[in-house]
Amino acid sequence: MSDDYIIKPQPETGTSTSPMKAVDAHGNPVELDIVHERPLTVFLNNREIVTLMSIGDHPKLLGVGYLVNQNMLSPQDQIESIDYDDVIDTVVIRTKVVTDFEEKLKRKILTSGCGQGTIFADIMDKLEDTTLAQTFQFKASWLELLLNKIKATPSLYRKAGSIHGCVLCHKDKPLIYMEDVGRHNALDKIAGYLYLNDLPKEDYILYTTGRMTSEMVMKAVIMGIEILISRSGATQWAVELAEKTGLTLISRARPKRFIALCHQGRIMFDLEKPSSKAAE
Amino acid sequence: MSDDYIIKPQPETGTSTSPMKAVDAHGNPVELDIVHERPLTVFLNNREIVTLMSIGDHPKLLGVGYLVNQNMLSPQDQIESIDYDDVIDTVVIRTKVVTDFEEKLKRKILTSGCGQGTIFADIMDKLEDTTLAQTFQFKASWLELLLNKIKATPSLYRKAGSIHGCVLCHKDKPLIYMEDVGRHNALDKIAGYLYLNDLPKEDYILYTTGRMTSEMVMKAVIMGIEILISRSGATQWAVELAEKTGLTLISRARPKRFIALCHQGRIMFDLEKPSSKAAE
């Protein structure tokens, strides 16, 4: 099987898991692998933004991706440096000029405290202006190919469990496979990579093991992803936002089964029909 | 089957799900139920604290529970009023006197922005002083009883999927069963109920469908829960924090199988041993 991955999980290095001893339901000793979880504090220039819980790999991509997906870093902001300190678990991202976001946050803080509302409103404004192109055609038969490739990739999930994965695919090829304990960190690390590198701008599918909520849809749209596929389901608001912005949502993904929730126009239904006997 | 629930899911009212039309992998129309997701903005006195994404049930319990689990409301703070406005999706919690937290957050904001760091440090301080009693004995055979009762309870999960559940159990009886889209909301709603009501203070088990991360352990300990059980696994830091504070963590829970990760002293291993034939 060909491997087009740019980044994939490295479960064999062991830096994100540890072995531990426990007991089973009969009190007998068992051994298992368990994933790490450590804080990462993200700074934008001189401002402390957030502390994220992460498995600890790709901290620079996570820091940048978090800021991009919160609309705190835009393509016109030029990053001057990204410094990661693994002793105090911080990543400091410095831009050439002070970002637009910092001014907004400053004003907000003077009036009412945490900037959550501002950031949220900013993202909604950005989404209002976004409509994804509808030219990309996804063959329903690709799903089996994608899921088999992803499943065959050694991962922390297979080694230790208790972890979510997100895989950025270009057409029928998985390119970037990230995992993390935090609900959105895996996706943010992919966003960080996309921000810092010149990949082609079109025909992206994102597969996730997690549920598709409003926030996942917002992030996928900001990242320019056209098709979001989940092993799990979606919320009503996620579907509404995807409907508005032109994102195709596919839930309950199995090799030859799925439910397409909106913008089904991108899908070529090329799977063989179940035989009429089975349908009778 | 006797039913000791104080609160359980109300899937039949339909206020948290909607039917929707979609298509399957062959392009054929399908109908499914989908869970709602809407913002809830929480105010403490005059301060806007956070906007949470929720299915929208029990907004007052969610607001209070969020503040309790962030250590922004303590038992000595007297709540004067809780006002929920379903048009603008806000809940305002007013205390008799200004809370200690508000003063701390004010100072923090003057120096460096969002209060995340302060809140986190506060919770860690509180955990340092906490050691759970070790007298409660949990029979391994109770798990089958608990899981069967929970499984037999009509839920949004069974109706629409894509949702997490948390169940507060007193000994072998499920008492409060909450569901939500947000990772921690289900647990926070239980914390809100515990804060506002006089339930016995001991012998609590919490069962969750979600993974046991550091934050879940912190919240469980603050709530006085002695045994945290998950269908899924735990992170290393979750185990470390549970170890320190005296919480028993049980992962991979199935009717007659589980893995006890720490403080196994609370568990009575009363399950029949597998027959020696099977072990041979």
Automatic annotation (TrEMBL), chains A, B:
GO cellular component, as recorded: cytoplasm
SUPFAM superfamilies for this protein: Cytidine deaminase-like
Annotated InterPro entries: Cytidine_deaminase-like (IPR016193), FdhD (IPR003786)
Source superkingdom: Bacteria
GO biological process assignments: Mo-molybdopterin cofactor biosynthetic process
Localization of this protein: Cytoplasm
Gene3D superfamilies documented for this protein: 3.10.20.10, Cytidine Deaminase, domain 2
MF (Gene Ontology): sulfur carrier activity; sulfurtransferase activity
Positions of the UniProt region annotated as Disordered: 1-21
Keyword terms: Cytoplasm, Molybdenum cofactor biosynthesis
UniProt-annotated catalytic positions: 114
Function: Required for formate dehydrogenase (FDH) activity. Acts as a sulfur carrier protein that transfers sulfur from IscS to the molybdenum cofactor prior to its insertion into FDH.
UniProt record similarity statement: Belongs to the FdhD family.
Entry protein name: Sulfur carrier protein FdhD
